[in-house]
């Protein structure tokens, strides 16, 4: 039986309605692919707390406001992923790759040109039909 991993993912946007994606670094599963920032939810940790912790650790930003927008499940060959997707409406600080990961701000229509994680593709579908608040 495959393990199930609980993950939070952030849709962060700028005034130009571009969204932030990060590239998985060497040594991680699916290295080189792009994803929405976030990470694993620790046992006993609330999803909103995991989101705030992951964005602080990975990007150096402090989340001021976030709301859950969807839940997804994806099956990879080695594990199941339960993904909780959040829109981050407010944050303090300029996102930077504290773990050495490249970052890009992209318009939702441009995301399909990147090698995105398969679990994140439904987020792109959703974004293409959404007008982000600026």
Summarize the structure.
With 134 residues, this protein is of the alpha+beta class. The chain contains 2 helices and 7 strands; from the N terminus they run ββββαβββα. The protein has a 4-stranded mixed sheet, with helices on one face.
Considering DSSP H and I runs of 4 or more, what fraction of the residues is helical? Answer: 10-25%
Strand order of the largest sheet: 4-1-6-5
Structural class: alpha+beta
How many alpha or pi helices? 2
Overall pLDDT metric: 93
**SSE order, one letter for each helix or strand:** EEEEHEEEH
Gross geometry: globular
Which residues sit in consecutive blocks of at least 5 with pLDDT less than 50?
A: none
Could you tell me the radius of gyration in angstroms? 14 Å
Number of strands: 7
What percent of residues are in strands? 35-45%
Distance between the termini: 44 Å
Largest sheet composition: 4 strands, mixed
Tell me what the structure shows.
It contains two helices and seven strands; from the N terminus they run E-E-E-E-H-E-E-E-H. It has helices spanning 47-59, 121-128, and strands at 4-12, 19-23, 34-35, 38-40, 62-75, 80-92, 103-106. The strands form two sheets. It has a four-stranded mixed sheet with strand order 4-1-6-5, with helices on one face. A three-stranded antiparallel sheet has the order 3-2-7, with no helix packed on it. The longest helix is centred in the middle third of the chain and has 13 residues, at 47-59. It is globular, with a radius of gyration of 14 Å. The model has no long low-confidence stretch (mean pLDDT 93).
């Amino acid at each position: 039986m495959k393990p199930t991993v609980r993950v939070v993912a952030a849709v962060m946007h700028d005034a130009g309605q571009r969204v932030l994606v990060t590239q998985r670094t060497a040594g991680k599963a699916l290295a080189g692919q792009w994803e929405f920032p976030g990470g694993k939810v620790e046992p006993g940790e609330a999803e909103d707390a995991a989101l705030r912790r992951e964005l602080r650790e990975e990007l150096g930003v402090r989340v001021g406001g976030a709301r859950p927008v969807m839940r997804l499940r994806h099956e990879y060959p080695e594990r199941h992923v339960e993904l909780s997707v959040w829109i981050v409406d407010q944050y303090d600080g300029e996102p930077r790759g504290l773990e050495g990961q490249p970052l890009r701000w992209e318009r939702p229509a441009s995301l399909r040109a990147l090698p995105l994680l398969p679990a994140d593709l439904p987020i792109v579908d959703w974004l293409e039909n959404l007008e982000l608040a600026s």
